[in-house]
Structure formats: structure tokens, C-alpha cells
Amino acid sequence: MKYLPSLIYLAVALASTQGFAATTDTEEKTASDTAPRLKTVRVEGQRQQQDPQRTPSAATVIAGEELQRQGIQSLEDLPQLAPGLDVAVVDPFDTRLTIRGIGDGGGTEINIGMPSSVGLFLDNVYLSRPGMLSNDLLDIENATVLAGPQGTLYGYSTTGGAIDIQTRKPTFEPEGSIRQSFGQRGHTQTQAMFSGPLSETLAGRINLSHSERGGYVKNRYSGHDLGGSIKDGVRGQLLWVPADDFSLRLIADWNDARNAPVAVLESTNLTNGRDLFLERARAAGANPVIGGVNTDDENHTRLQQGGVSAEANWALAGGYNLRSTTAFRYFGYKPSTTDTLDIPLYSNSGADVRDRIWSQEIRLDSPRGEHFDYALGALYFGENLDTYAHDYYADNDQAPIWYGNRNLNGKLVQRWGEIDERIFSLFTQGTWHVTDKFDITAGVRGTHQRKAGSFVRVNRNDFDSGDLVQRKFLPSGLLNFSYWFQPELQGYLTLGYGEKAGGLNISSGAANRAGMDSLFILPESTRGAELGLKGKWFEQRLSADVALFWSRVKDFQTNAYDEEFQTSYLINAGSIRSRGIAASIGLYPVEGLSLNLDGTLLDASYMEFDNARCPAEVTLRGNAPATCDLSGEQVFRSPKVTYNLTSRYDWRAGDGLDAFLQARWSYRSWAYGTVDNSRYTRIPGYGLLNLSAGLGGQYGDGRWNASVWLNNALDKTYYRTLSAGSYGEVYGNRGEPRTLGVTLGYDF
């Protein structure tokens, strides 16, 4: 471990410019299989792209090799390489994505009527919820994070951006890999991949994975370590290439995940000079532990999911390509949740979820033309999602003291909700090559949405919504201007518009007070603009991308709260403005050494939000207003500064060995944790330092590699989410502490 002091010094010294605003990285970095060399840099917006109609933008394009080298294996850790992206994971069902402050408006896990405005795609298939990314980021070809409205090519629920993940295809040359990781607190991860020909025209690929993470939060009551997980997954593929002009790729996967989520009591707060939470807890005989966990029961969740997809590509006469993508996915989630105290209040509760989605997309791409080329297509998408929520309240003398309501004793409160959605859309996008240096790209998409649903609640504020039906037309459009000032310097201007799907308020709270019309939520519309420059100099030893961006969200979809009935419900609020600067700098001063700095300086504010839910510090004081005005305040989960600084050095160590040292510092400034901007839930800013070092060499026909890694090297205590309880207490999902581990692998 001699290298640790020097790496810590290097990372901390480079990270001392904490106020520097950086942005998203547009590079793909590839690892050398033999001698160290300069990384290959591909600037998004070059003439040759994976998608010929993707316009230049401040997109973060990360090669799969780079994800592996950086130790990024889950969606939750992707923001460490993609500043401006925020991933908040409470559990597999309640996972929220935002890009530059725009994304999930704050809907709860019970209210199923509202999708995110950041779309997640896996191998060209839209995943309606982030938890459907079941196999994490394993065996990935590349991952792309796109900011701003993406509705022309990606669809109706991408007004805030999109995350596009492509996995590696089967190969007609045999290859395989085995990796085993061990770490503190029972961390183990096993990965195996085999790929190769099954016949002259058929190739297969299979991935097997098993991972375990031990808990890192001690339950004082039981002595158990909570926060751990166990995941098992299998993913198989077949690639059939019977002729040069046709290929068919079939993908199937199944995953089983068991988690023990835990919320830490981060703090309690005074109201009118009194700590209402501690007073009530002690009156009921509870002994809460601030900064820890003390509960007589524990949370457990199980997620079983899988899917199949088929992608066919025909190379037609004249250079045209026709692509058909057919997919089906199943998502089954069963939680068993409990209260957070060491007295029985409720247990074995939560919201069981079944989600089924299916889709069919047809897309035609023209050949690269001298003056014009284009893509056009159609999409049909369906989703059927239902929940059964159940709360089992204890029957004792302590529960009425805590709730102030004896009527809940021994009750089973049940809620049934269902959403059935159908989407049909047509799209086209084309690029006019005005000159060799100047391109103009324009695109439009029209989407018809039909959403139906219902909600029933019994044993507490009984409610039956009856059948609800909503129909909407959702337009999207894009206009992009791109100009090459020099062979290695490109400028661009992108203008975009999109509408996110409307929602159904599958909750009793709104209708009891506001009438049945409040059950229908209008679409959320977004206008966006981005002005950027991309350049490379000194034989690609220096690269820099800078972008100014601006977005305006109208009819912001978020949630409110009914204090009397203790029920969340959806609303259309006012508008949000997101603006700022994004930048990425890559420096490769000498052979084997790379320095990368990227980040975002963000100003995301509520322009109009006068019907916001009031924060706990207001509602608990008494005589609180029905709503609060947050106009002009910072949007929740939108830190003003995020940046990542990575340094890596590769060299030939002798005797056929390759070695590397790497350090990554990721920083994010403070942000509100909940949509009501409660000062109780303000998440402090924090920085994370991750270190790694390794060796590799040839063995037989393959290459072995071994690395040691230290995540959260400074053992920073930080929270991924914070939320306020009924009496001013604050609970949070704490990030993992310092973790030391090793990874052994063999590629053949």
C-alpha cells in the first residue's frame, strides 16, 4: 500500500479547486491490452457515430472498458463519471433520476401514476422504471448520458434527458472472462462471461453474476448489520447472421435481488422549543438512537424480474438499414417494511408491484448522403402496472400514543391501484449537409397516449376512483446547427422541445378535497437550448468541451401532501428553469498519464411554485397555510456544483507485467432532499475519494489482472437521500463507508 499516500496527495491537490465548474465528459476511453498508450478520445459529434442522427451535445459517452477500469458497476454510481446526473435510490422500486435538476418531480412509491422525464434505455429498449436495469453495468459496450429534451429519437418521456446503455454482442471469435471480487463487510462479486460461435452463422454469449454486500448500519436492537443485498443474474444472447445483409439478435435475462434497506435517524428538530419526535417516542416507550438505528423489526425486499428482446437489422439496397426491435419485460417487487422504532407500530407492510411492459419499434436509416440523410420510424409501447399496498398496524397501547389515533389499532389498511397505458408514435429526423463544415439537423415526433387506471382504498379514508381514462397528444421537436471551425474544433447550437406523458392521480388525497378533476395530471412540457464548443489539440493530448445550457419546464409534475388524511397526491405546479455551464477537460501530458476533469455549474430554480407542499418546520408550528410559495428557490436534488477529477498512470513494470495507479475525486455541493425544500432535509455537500492499483500480464492464451481498490478512502459519512418524518425527525439513506477490496480476473 505504499502508493496510497502519493495518490491521496495527487487527488486532493488536484481537487482543491472545489469551486471550479466542470461538465460532462464526451470521451470514450479504451484500455490498452498490451503496452500503455494514449487513450483514444472520441468526441461526440464526429462524422462517424454509433447513431448517425445523434446530434452533437454535451453528452457523456463512457466505454464499457472505462466503467470496468473505474469500478463503476451500478446505475447508482454512474454520477461519479457523469456530473449533472443524480441517482437517488431508496429501494429498487423507488429509484429516481434527474439530469441538470430535471427528472422525477417527487412522486412517491405508492403513487404509480407518473413516469420520470429521464428515459432509461437498454439495447434500444425503453425501461419504464430505473429498477428494471437489473444486471447493473456488467459487460457493457458503452453508456451515454444525454441532457436536455431527447424526444425526437428517444420518445415521449425524455424531456429531461436520456441514459442509453448498450451491451456487448455475441462474437464469432471465442472469448471469455472470469472475475472475482472480495471486500470488507462480506462484499463478494462473481462474474463469468463466455462468447463464441455455435455454427458458421450463429454466435452466443452468456453472462452469469452473483454479488453480496454485507450491511454497514448496525441495528442496536438486534445486533444485525443492515443495508446489505444479495443479487443473482443470468443473461443470454444469440446472434444469427445468415447473410451479409441481415442479422438477428435475441436477448433474455432473469434476475433475483434481495435487499435489507435501512433508514438512519439522522437528526431530530425543535418546534416551538420542543422536540415533538423525542417527546412522543419516549411517551410511547421507544428509545430512538440519533445517528443510528434501533428497531424491533427490519425491512426486507425481494425483486424478481426478467425480459426478452429481439433486434433485427436488414441492410437494404442503396445503403438503407431497417431495424426492428421487439421487447417484453416483467418487474415483480415485494417489500416487507416496518416502522423505525423499537416498539411494535406496524410491520410486514409496503406496496407489492407487478409491472409488465412490451414494445415494438421500426426504424429506417438512410445511407450517408452527400447533401442529406435521415431516419424515420414508429413505436408502439404498452404497460400494465398494478400495486397492492398493505399496512398492518399493531394492536397495543403504544400505537395510539404514537399516532394519536386509537382507530388504527389492529387495522389492515389496503390500497389497490392499476395503470394501463398505450403509446403510439411516429418520428423522423434528418440532417442537411449544407457544406463540408456546416450541418443542419431537424426532427419531429408525434405521440398519442392513452392511459387508464383506478384506485381503491379501504379501512382508512375509504375511496374508490372508478375507471379513469386520459388521452393526450405529445409533440416533440429538435433543431441543431453544427459547424466545424477547424478539423478539430466544432461548434453547435441545439434547440429542443418535448412533452412528458400526463399522469393519473392514483391517490385518495386529491379527490377528497379538490374533486375528481384533480385526478388527471397534465403533461409536463420542456423547452431547451444548448450552445457548445468541442476541440482537440496537440495531437489529442488536450481536449476540451464547453457548453452553455438552458431549459424551462412548464406544468411541473410533482406531489403535494394532505396533512389531515396523511396522503400524498400528484399536482401540476408552476415552472422550473435550469441553466448553467458544462465543461470537460482531458489532458494526456506524457505516455501513460491521463488527467480528466468534468463537471457542471447549475442554477435550477422554481420560477413559479406557489402551491408547493409546506416543509415540516412550517406545518408543525401550528396554523400552517395549506400551501407554501417556493418561487425563486432552488429545485430539490439539484446541487449547484458537481465535478469529477480522475488521474491514472499506466506503465510497463517489466517481466511482461503492466501496472496502473488511479485516483478519482467526486464532489457535489449541498442540495435539498425533498420537493418541499425543507431545511431539515438539506443534504450537505460531500466529496468521495476512490483509489485503485493493479497489475496484469499474459498467461497462456489470455491475460490475468489483479487490483486492489479503496472506495470512500477518507471514510466520509454522507447521505444519498434525506426525508422528514411526521414530527420533525429526519431519516436518510447513508452511503457506504470506506471499503477495501481486491479483484482478480482472467480474460481469454
Automatic annotation (TrEMBL):
Cleaved signal peptide residues: 1-21
Biological process annotations from GO: iron ion transport
SUPFAM superfamilies tied to this protein: Porins
A single GO cellular-component term on record: cell outer membrane
Protein's membrane topology: Multi-pass membrane protein
Motif TonB C-terminal box positions after renumbering to this chain: 731-748
Segments passing through the bilayer: none
Main location (coarse class): membrane
All copies of domain TonB-dependent receptor-like beta-barrel, residue ranges: 271-712
Residue span(s) of domain TonB-dependent receptor plug: 52-162
Subcellular location: Cell outer membrane
Keywords, in A-Z order: Cell outer membrane, Ion transport, Iron, Iron transport, Membrane, Receptor, Signal, TonB box, Transmembrane, Transmembrane beta strand, Transport
Family indicated by similarity: Belongs to the TonB-dependent receptor family.
Name of the protein described by the UniProt record: TonB-dependent receptor
Organism whose genome encodes this protein: Stutzerimonas kirkiae
